[in-house]
Amino acid sequence: MQRYFVDQVLTTDDDPIYIEAADHHHLARVMRMTTGDQVYIVFADNQFCTAEIVSVSEDKTLLKLVEWQTNNPELPIAITIASGLPKGDKLEWIVQKGTELGADSFIAFPSDRSIVKWDAKKTEKKRERLQKIAKEAAEQSHRVHVPTITTLASGKQLAERCGEYDAVVVAYEESAKANEKAVLASVFAALRPGMRLLVIFGPEGGISEQEIQLFKAQKAHFAGLGPRILRTETAPLYLLAAASYQFELNNE
Disulfide: which of 136, 168, 180, 235 matches 230 by Cβ 3.0-4.6 Å? Predict the structure, then answer.
């Protein structure tokens, strides 16, 4: 069943529900839905329901609530993926697949070793595109939360935000080369539902020595992700899959 996010919060179960703009176009023109069809609606407070289409007009779709849904597809810990700007469309891949795997939010920053550089105009345009990708991926994977996309100006700015999280992990290539296996597992073991985890990934050239010192000063943990060296677009997906096993599959 198709899923749509709306900027509403219902005050009663009888409140009308509206889908407008691009989502209305998708529902009416692309999916060709009509009166009586049902969809999932996710509200601004992350509650969601099954809703039935009442009418489809030129500029909006009117729906009514059928049944509240209670299953929660979100990871029990909020994981933020911070990526040093990679080349090409790799960041789009990270956001799309990372959203499907349960990331809570994403941060993009120009790492010391990033080849790609964004000016102010390009940064906002890129952020908007990434936010759209996150929304579409959240709909496809039946989530109730659309990850937020934040752009920062430097690794220093990222280091300054480390205190907002319960734990910070830096995916570190040298730890993987040394066959280090315990750090990530120990961080996971200390986390409890509702906590926030920031995981930092470098671009193709990795994290610079200066950035390592910045994150060490914030008491970040430096962890390997298994015995193999992963690409910058693969490593976040490995981390999220490991988190899903630890906090969802392994606890059932």
Answer: 235
CATH number at residue 9: 2.40.240.20
**Are 139 and 183 a contacting pair, CB within 8 Å?**
no
Q: At what angle do helices 90-100 and 235-247 cross, to 10 degrees?
A: 10
Beta pairing class for 105-109 and 78-84: parallel
Reduced to 3 states (helix: H, G, I; strand: E, B; else coil), residue 152 is: coil
Whole-number pLDDT of residue 227? 83
What is the pairing mode between strands 148-151 and 105-109? parallel
Please indicate, yes or no, whether residues 87 and 164 belong to a single structural domain of this protein. yes
Is residue 73, in this structure, part of any structural domain at all?
A: no
Say yes or no to pLDDT of 176 above 80: no
Per-residue pLDDT at 117: 84
Residue 178 has pLDDT above 70, yes or no: no
Domain that holds residue 51: 3-68
Structure tokens at 247: 């906090």
pTM given for the model: 0.90
Q: What is the CATH number of the domain that holds 181?
A: 3.40.1280.10
First to last CA, the chain: 26
What's the domain count of the chain?
2
